[in-house]
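hey can u check if this looks right to u? its 326 residues, i copy pasted from the old doc so theres a chance i mangled smth
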Amino acid sequence: MWKILAVIAAVLLGGAGFFGLQNKGVIEQSMKDLTKEKDTLVARQADLSAAKEEIASLNQSIMSLGDETERLNTEKIDLDNKVVQVESELRLLETQIQTADAKLGRARELIKEFPDIEEIRRQMAETRAQIEESEIEKVKKQGEVASKQVEIDSLGKVAGELTALRKDQDAGVIRGEFQSSIAKAYNKWGFVVVNAGNDQGVVHHAQLDVYRRGQYLCKLLVTQVEANQSVADIVPGSLQPGQSVLAGDVVVKAIKSTTPVLPTGTTTGPAPSPDDAAPVSAPAPKPAAPAADPFGGGAEPDPFGGGGGAMEADPFGGGAPDPFGQ
């Protein structure tokens, strides 16, 4: 009997050792997963800092444009004062010419009254020389006035263009025609990457519309702009029910709407209908990637290197990830 008990005890001890080793492997894998999650959070914090620095740089550029506009306005005022001064000098020269003409008339009358013709001729020559000098000075001043006026007009145009550019940037207006496409879409995080940036006319806070095969999908708000690409939030409530944004969807600048663009997570009413937002004829979209689901389904890439599926809880006690710093 004791042999049977010894065998049973040996089996139990072996099983305990086996399960202990298996649990150790699970614990080590959990530690690796936690380390990976921590590295991902650090990377996302670095991206957030870079985005804040970019916003500060854009604000500094806007302030520089304001200072340049004020400087140009000051130069315009100085040039206006110079023009007034030159016009005053021209009037003085015209008065001098009229005085010289009067002297010439009196000299001609003296010819009839005095026999000293040579003296009269000398006086006439001096008067004529004065008139010619005055005429030359008048022409010179007129040339200066014309040159200053051209400079004033040029500065006025530059100042107007800078003012208009600053207003467009503040209002998020894209100048001229614009069409691009979605480079990457992160529907779970509520933002996309667009294949266009500063070089293509995209500005901060610009509103964009997304289409697929001529059908309106949603509205975007640009939050970060680089040279050849930009990041835009999907405006809450604008995405059509049952749809998701895919790489290759067509992006155009939004038609002006009275509905304000709200930050992520803020709503004030029902979403706008596609009939109000979509144009009569939308541009033809570029072909989507072969693996994309035309009905908006399928798994989407994780911008932070994680796998697909539902988002797991933050092991460090934080909330859901926010790639925009809102």
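Helices lie at 2-113, 117-171, 274-277.
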